[in-house]
Amino acid sequence: MKSRFAAIAIGAVSVMALAGCSATAQGDGDGGGDAFAPQDVRMIVPFAAGGGSDVSGRAIASGLEEATGSTVTVENREGGSGAVGYSHFLAQQGNGNYLLAAETALLALPLTTDVGFSYESFTPIMKLGDDYTLVVAPGDSRFDTCTDVVDAAKSDGVVAAVSGTVSLDEVVFTLIEKDQDITFDRVPFEGGSEVIAGLLGGTVEVGSLNPSEVLGQLESGDLKALCALSEERYEYAELADIPTAKEQGIDVAFAQFRGFIAPGGISEEAKQFWIDAAKEFAESEAYTAYIEENLMQANAAYGDEFADYLAENSAALEAVVGK
């Protein structure tokens, strides 16, 4: 599955080459000494404002500001299902003043698209936790369960929204297709907020969204949850009544991780600085609030442990969406 955004991503790397050289020359901002001192820190969000990645990036930036006393400015660099933002970030090689709010696209893009990076191109700092998704439909939909969706896909077809061609949505719908021997008609959007608009506007019939993105619409009745693509039912009161896909005979559960990374080639001092700041953030009320408000599963990992998780998760993804 080759993305039509491949040329954009590769072009972005080329255009940013001089910027990357500048960033490398600027280095970690430690003035040549042993101590790393962050300067003009940028948190790149490779998706549009309003979605789960944007919420994650802003929460992390705020938490790191509290932990370090530094200003962390959030930049949304959307396009190419995340490829534009990741390619811009690749050009910051060696610059410890750049961070990126990472998720499944970090692993899926290199497996499905001709981009110039993989997860090994960057420096893993922190995995905050796991974010499962819900399959949702408009409140007046003909579907009440995910079984209804599967049955319809076998007969007259179902139009499904995906927030990018290599997103978590794409992964879970592919897993459902393989498990149930069906095919969805996909309509790609750039982010979760656009998927919600497509559902409410009748452009698509079903979507896969993180609970934090869609809770308001579920509570208002504008949208309804058909199943949760999680191992077990949520313990959060707002979601506890939603059956899992497995309860409905669909053997699919897959979580998107939320975390942040630094560019490749940064100094050990810069890497340790951000890991220490991440651990301080994880002990804060702000971290607990982020996890609970976004209905996630807390499961933090740092540095090399996060890198091991990425390697294992990439191998699992390759079996599903690999080239």
UniProtKB/TrEMBL annotation:
Signal peptide range in chain numbering: 1-19
Q: Report the Gene3D superfamilies cross-referenced here.
A: Bordetella uptake gene, domain 1, Periplasmic binding protein-like II
What keywords sit in the KW lines? Answer: Signal
State the PROSITE patterns in the record.
Answer: PROKAR_LIPOPROTEIN
InterPro entries assigned to the protein according to its UniProt record, in alphabetical order = BUG, Bug_dom1
Q: Which domain of life is it from?
A: Bacteria
Q: Quote the CDD domains the UniProt record gives.
A: PBP2_Bug_TTT
| Family assignment from sequence similarity | Belongs to the UPF0065 (bug) family.
Q: What is the name of this protein?
A: Tripartite tricarboxylate transporter substrate binding protein
